[in-house]
Every structure is written in C-alpha cells, then in structure tokens.
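Q: Given only this backbone (391 positions), what sequence would you predict?
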C-alpha cells in the first residue's frame, strides 16, 4: 500500500485544517481579486476525489468553491494527478459529484502540464494549491513560473511543505554521509531530490547537527528551520510575503507539515489568517474526536457529561485569551514600529494564536486598546486597513 493510498483511507486531524482552508479561502480570493477578469483554481497534486469514507478531498472542495464562484466570475478548475489509479478515481468522483463546473483534468506531472495551465491562466487570477506527497516540487517551477507571473491579475500559491518527509530524508542523507564510502546510489538520489525541491544544497548545512539516525526531535526542529529558509528563498527579491501555519496532528506534537500562503497583498494575508482561525476550530474538534476513536486519554477540551466537543463553548472559553494575546502583540508593535497598518503585519498581529483566533478577535483587541486610550483606531469598519498609533 502506498502512502497515498493510506492517506485516503481516512481524513486525519492534520488534514482537517487544510481542508477547512480549501472550502473557504478560494471563494474569498475570487471575490477579492476577480474584478471582471477570469479565475483559475489549480490543484496541482489532486489525488483521489474523496476519502474512502466519502469525505471530500481537495478536488471536490475546490470544485464546490468554483461552483459557488461561477455565479459572479468566469472560473476554470484545473486538476493534475500522476498516479493512474488516483486519476481514475478523481475523474469518476468529479464527474458524479463535482457539480456543473468548467474543469479540466490532466494525468501526469505538474511539470508536464504547467505550461498549458499557465497559458490558460493568462489574463486570469490564479489560485494554486500544491499538496505533493513529500518533496516532489521543483523550486524554480514555483519561483519563476508561478510566483514569477505578472503582478496583475494576482497569483497566490498555497503550498504544503512536508516537515516529516524533509526531516526523514535530510537525516538519512546526513547520517549516511558520515559512513565510510559516503552516500549510496539511492541516497544520492534522495539528496538530489531535496536539492531540486529546496533550490540547492544549502539545507545540508542545517542537517549537519543531526548525527543520530533515531533523533526524530532534532531532525524535525531542523526541518522546520529549513522550511523557514525555503519560504524566504522563494519570496526573496519579490513583492510576495509568506504566511506560514505549522500543522500538528494534535496539541503538543511536532508539526507534520507547514501550510504557507504566498501572496503579494496584505489583504490576502488578512483574509487567510481569518480563514485559518475558523478552520482551526474544526481541527480542534477533529483531533479530540480522533482521540476518542483511539480510546486515548481525552484532553481538557472535553466538556464533562456534555458533548465530546462544543464549538461554541470552545470559542467562548478561548476568546478572551486570543484577544488578550493580540492586544499585547499590538502594543509591542507600537513600541517597535511607532505606527503601522494591521494589514501590513498580519502574522505579527496574531503571533502564537494564528490558526486559533480570527478577525473578530483582532477587532475586539483593537476596541479594547481604544477604550483604554492606548490607540486612536476605534476598531470600526475596515479598521485593519487604518494606521494604528498612540494618541
């Protein structure tokens, strides 16, 4: 059984946040960036159309977004999948459940079909979702051909960076390189694959501190720092910013992957952070239910004799902490910047509650500081576009 097959047997909690984004953010993107020009949604590593339990995978979620958007935009949904069995399932599921959407399906690699997609997307706003199993992407493909598109109509890329795969592969190459004789043929291929994905051999210096083949924790820490550098390298010299969200199977565990939105616009970062918070509630519920299925010790988010997870109670109990954290971040930013617009510093505003809080909690924090006389922005209207400063 391949990792791909195993993944589609059931939707794990770590996938819930990703899918919570995909059912929301593409609609926001199309609404904010279309302005009469066409929209293209790309799922570059589509996989199967749905999980074995019937839950929708990314292709169905994007198709539903396209169906909603087509009421006010000319939209094309473009799907690429290489594995023949997964492609056959994708084709069947989208035909039966994908709705009356203008879509194109291609079997093969993203490298193979990207020229056609880019030609179809000329003059269109493009939202690309890239979710490979492991480091399958070409760094230059993303930087020059996707992020290198003209600044208008806009392009945004939502990218899955597999922390676990990079940690495993980087550690294996580092440990093997310490043996007499160096890397075997297969290990050289692994190293070359990481070079292609990460845009060079610079990552090897990061893994130099990993000497134990069993040191999962250190390898994961290194892979997270590699993910940071990778995002910086992709955006270096461009107008793009990277909004990064490490995704964990459950609280207290190391991230399995990092979801990163590459956007040129602060407004994109603002709406993406809002989407992350809403999807984060679904992730919280998913991992709690997953614990219940496994009969593990249930965490403190369970509510006595009531339901396993009460979303409204969860939000009510955590909202004061979320808003309080954002308040402190806003004040710290005043000390650092003097004045600023929230839209220009979205990840900094949310800080550690990115993926938990969303827009109303930022508004609540701004209003609280305004009542205290600490800022001049009252938190009304599109407050996140206004300049924040002290009176």
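A: Predicted residues:
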């Amino acid at each position: 059984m391949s990792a791909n097959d195993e993944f589609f047997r059931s939707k794990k909690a770590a996938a819930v946040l990703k899918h919570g984004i995909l059912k929301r953010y593409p609609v926001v993107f199309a609404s904010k960036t279309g302005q009469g020009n066409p929209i293209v949604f790309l799922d570059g590593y589509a996989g199967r159309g749905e999980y074995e339990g019937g839950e929708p995978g990314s292709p169905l979620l994007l198709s539903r977004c396209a169906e909603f958007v087509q009421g006010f935009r000319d939209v094309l949904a473009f799907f690429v999948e290489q594995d023949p069995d997964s492609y056959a399932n994708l084709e069947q599921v989208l035909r039966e459940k994908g709705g009356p959407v203008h879509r194109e399906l291609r079997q093969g690699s993203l490298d193979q079909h990207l020229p056609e997609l880019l030609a179809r997307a000329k003059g269109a706003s493009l939202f690309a979702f890239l979710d490979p199993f492991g480091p399958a992407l070409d760094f230059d493909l993303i930087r020059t051909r996707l992020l290198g598109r003209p600044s208008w109509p806009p392009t945004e890329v939502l990218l899955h960076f597999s922390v676990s795969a990079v940690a495993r592969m980087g550690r294996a190459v580092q440990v093997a390189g310490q043996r007499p004789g160096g890397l075997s043929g297969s290990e050289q291929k692994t190293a070359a694959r990481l070079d292609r994905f990460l845009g060079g051999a610079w990552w090897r210096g990061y893994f130099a501190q990993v000497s134990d083949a069993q040191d999962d924790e250190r390898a994961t820490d290194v892979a997270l720092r590699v993910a940071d550098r990778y995002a910086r390298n992709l955006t270096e010299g461009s107008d793009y910013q990277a909004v990064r969200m490490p995704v964990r199977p459950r609280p207290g565990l190391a991230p399995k992957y990092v979801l990163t939105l590459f956007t040129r616009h602060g407004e994109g970062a603002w709406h993406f952070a809002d989407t992350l918070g809403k999807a984060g509630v679904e992730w919280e519920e998913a991992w709690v239910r997953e614990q219940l299925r496994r009969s593990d010790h249930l965490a403190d988010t369970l509510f006595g004799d009531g339901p396993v997870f009460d979303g409204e109670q969860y939000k009510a109990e955590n909202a004061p902490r979320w808003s309080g954290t954002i308040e402190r971040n806003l004040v710290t930013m005043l000390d650092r910047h003097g004045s600023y617009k929230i839209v220009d510093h979205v990840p900094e505003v949310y800080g550690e509650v990115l993926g938990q809080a969303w827009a109303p909690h930022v508004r609540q924090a701004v209003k609280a500081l305004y009542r205290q006389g600490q800022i001049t922005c009252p938190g009304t209207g599109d407050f996140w576009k206004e300049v924040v400063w002290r009176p």
